[in-house]
């Protein structure tokens, strides 16, 4: 499961010797590549058109409750085997939230989480902070943009305006969003930018901004207490409790010291929530020199990360 504003191509953009999907396949695994709703390969709907506002009326909560369980059930129905889960960035957020509510853990063998995101309060990426602090998501929703697509004029002009702020470097957007990556070469970045970014819902961007601003991981906040009561039965959105993740469920967490999205401080807070986890079922890898994109398109990710992922999956296969 890929990150926000990306799709399943993320796992296939490097050479077959360097892309995690190919490496897993060469190691004997069947690889199922997820594409979140609204992206290039997952844009259809049984009744709604992608040009309608209703089509985009969802946040990552809906991926937790509906999409991820459906994906796991679909794979099991075709293989009659429990799969392993692998996620990057928002893919890990969806998984952690699902696991904390007991969703899918009984249908998975294990989970490997690259740049795990449960909290965002230590995020240091300049553009990300500007977006969150400006309440951009709520503003765009009010203005009528239900789809957050960086290539559309409305969102592109927003980024152009934010790029005028001191401290941003929009000549190197990938670094400005993710941190100074360790082993990206220019050709890898060029290929990445041919396929990404992908659209997501503005509501998802609002939800991520709320996670940063509020300092807690909770369900989508509709702001008006009456609406929250209607949705959740209480005036504030319920929190996801990471300590509720079953202590015996095998987890592999890998994170980087230069990551400005999944900041080490926020990952440390997540690890604090997991302090009651079975030590034999929790593997943690910290790479001081890695940033956010190194984990998916870094030329050295195989040696530093992927070989360890394969070993972890084989251990719980």
From TrEMBL:
Top-level taxon of the source organism: Eukaryota
An example Gene Ontology biological process: lipid catabolic process
Keyword Lipid metabolism annotated: yes
Keywords: Lipid degradation, Lipid metabolism
Name used for this protein in its record: AB hydrolase-1 domain-containing protein
The UniProt record lists the keyword Zinc: no
Residue ranges occupied by any AB hydrolase-1 domain in the UniProt entry: 18-122
Organism: Aegilops tauschii subsp. strangulata (Goatgrass)
């Amino acid at each position: 499961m890929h990150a926000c504003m990306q799709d399943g191509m993320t796992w296939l953009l490097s050479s077959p010797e360097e892309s995690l999907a190919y490496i897993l396949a060469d190691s004997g695994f069947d690889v199922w590549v997820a594409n979140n709703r609204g992206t290039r390969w997952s844009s259809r709907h049984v009744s709604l058109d992608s040009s309608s506002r209703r089509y985009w009326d969802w946040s990552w909560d809906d991926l937790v409750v509906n999409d991820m369980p459906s994906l796991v059930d679909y794979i099991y129905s075709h293989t009659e085997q429990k799969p392993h889960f692998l996620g990057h960035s928002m893919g890990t957020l969806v998984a952690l939230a699902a696991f904390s509510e007991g969703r899918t853990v009984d249908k998975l063998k294990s989970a490997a989480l690259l740049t795990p995101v449960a909290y965002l309060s230590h995020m240091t990426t300049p553009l990300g902070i500007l977006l969150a602090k400006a309440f951009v998501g709520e503003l765009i929703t009010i203005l009528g943009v239900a789809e957050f697509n960086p290539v559309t004029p409305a969102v592109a002009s927003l980024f152009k305006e934010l790029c005028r702020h001191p401290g941003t470097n929009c000549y190197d957007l990938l670094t400005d969003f993710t941190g100074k990556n360790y082993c990206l070469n220019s050709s890898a970045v060029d290929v990445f930018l041919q396929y990404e970014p992908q659209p997501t819902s503005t509501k998802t961007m609002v939800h991520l901004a709320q996670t940063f601003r509020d300092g807690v991981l909770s369900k989508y906040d509709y702001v008006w207490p009456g609406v929250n009561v209607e949705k959740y039965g209480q005036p504030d959105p319920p929190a996801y409790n990471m300590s509720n993740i079953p202590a015996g469920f095998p987890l592999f967490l890998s994170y980087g010291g230069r990551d400005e999205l999944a900041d080490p401080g926020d990952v440390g807070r997540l690890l604090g929530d997991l302090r009651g986890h079975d030590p034999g079922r929790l593997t943690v890898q910290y790479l001081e020199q890695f940033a956010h994109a190194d984990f998916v398109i870094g030329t050295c990710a195989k040696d530093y990360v992927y070989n360890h992922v394969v070993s972890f999956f084989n251990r719980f296969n």
